[in-house]
Specification:
The chain is of the alpha/beta class. 37% of the residues lie in helices and 23% in strands.
């Protein structure tokens, strides 16, 4: 890494959404742009962020089942999981910031938004010098025939957003907050309100998971894993040893390792 690397050398285009937009519009924009979270603006000023996790929780909530998703606005699910930096600061400042926040908004001297830096942006410029086995995290698993309502409960209770789908030790896929958000949006759009509570209970993990499973071996280099996560625009990947699941590597774990 160059000692002269600055924030402006690392930052990318800031993808924004108005606070008055529907959360379905926000989700579509996230999926189209391949980003998470979006930066929420009001009258040109940054006021927060909205994530796929927040949208998944909202669309899957029973208390919102009688409300059209297009009537739920971004402002209702905005949080403050961001901080700020300036273009001419040294890029090293981004490491501790992204270890705590999901995104860094980049502001000019007049506090106008000129870009953003997230984990993907930073990992394009910097990569940790470590081994996969040092940063692998515990993998939470779920069976493909488990109900999505149970998955949502586990996500809330355990604070986990990524599950590896397994059956008798065989890795079939992965299910994340993105899969939940996408499926809940599609479900709410095609199922009448009066039937949602019953129908959603019949929705299974295998109906929404991302499959087939993509895995890496624990001996894969950190550089190769980082490049793969960036190029595929995914946030995590299951790790195997001798063909068996040992954990997950996430972009966030790579940022922490910096």
């Amino acid at each position: 890494m160059s000692e002269n690397l600055l924030v402006k050398d690392v930052m990318s285009k800031a993808v924004t959404i108005a606070k008055s937009a529907a959360i379905t519009e926000a989700l579509d924009k996230m999926l189209d742009e391949g980003t998470d979270p979006l930066i929420v603006k009001n009258n040109g000023v940054v006021m927060g962020t909205i994530s796929r996790k927040a949208i998944a929780e909202t669309l899957g909530s029973k208390r919102n089942s009688d409300l059209s998703p297009t009537k739920i606005h971004v402002t209702n699910k905005t949080d403050e999981d961001y901080t700020s930096a300036y273009p001419d600061q040294e890029a090293e400042v981004l490491i501790p910031l992204l270890q705590e926040y999901r995104v860094v908004v980049v502001l000019d001297e007049e506090h106008h938004l000129v870009g953003k830096v997230d984990s993907t942006d930073l990992l394009r410029a910097m990569q940790p010098e470590t081994k996969i086995e040092k940063i692998v995290q515990n993998a939470f698993t779920i069976h493909p025939d488990e109900r999505v309502v149970h998955l949502r409960r586990r996500m809330l209770d355990e604070g986990v957003t990524k599950f590896v789908v397994t059956d008798n030790g065989r890795i079939l896929g992965i299910v994340t907050e993105t899969d939940v958000a996408r499926s809940m949006k599609a479900f709410r759009e095609v199922v009448d309100d009066k039937h949602q509570d019953h129908r959603i209970r019949n929705l299974l993990i295998k109906d929404i998971m991302t499959s087939p499973a993509i895995t890496i071996d624990v001996d894969t280099s950190v550089s190769d894993v980082t490049d793969y996560l960036i190029n595929k625009n995914i946030s995590s990947i299951p790790v195997t040893k001798d063909g068996r699941l040992t954990g997950l590597v996430t972009k966030q774990a790579l940022i922490v390792a910096l």
